[in-house]
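Lab notebook page, bench 4
Experiment: in silico fold of construct C2
Operator: M.H.
Input chain length: 180 residues
Purpose: comparison with the prior construct
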Amino acid sequence: MKNNSITIKQQEAHDLPAIYRLIEEAFASVQESNHREQFLVTRLLSSPGFIPELSLTAWIQNELVGYILLTEIEILSDSTSMPSLSLAPLAVRPKFQKQGIGAALIKEAHKRACQLNYETILVLGHKDYYPRFGYKKAENFGITFPFEVQPEFCMVKELTPGAASRAAGQVKYPKAFFEY
């Protein structure tokens, strides 16, 4: 990665203005975006599902270049509720994209989620990007989403082998994901 070393650390309160600017920049030209991801982050950071250890920033020297947030959600079946995580958003400053920063953030987030004993992570994301990190179509495990979206964009990552099959059911997102 071009002689730049990345430092990944837990987000601190004073990082928030820079995180919001980074998210705006990262999603500015994304056609599928509603360009309100920074407001989603504001809501998620104050929601009951917020886990400070899973709100991560990536830095090159003193410049914020990337951000990832994993928030707790549930997968509901007829008989049980299984905690899971939702990956949203992942953002990398445009001039630093395609340099491995997003990959480094995802791998670190996975590692920290495992340390916190989470077994699965769900993402609504690019069908060609996330599979390289072990994400598979959620529908293959009987996991459904509470809204209309093409199945190839709905994916699950097993942090524990077999966990996605045990999680079969409908994803329940906290209301913070939907408020505007």
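Observations: The two ends are 38 Å apart (CA to CA). The mean pLDDT is 92.
Next step: discuss at group meeting.
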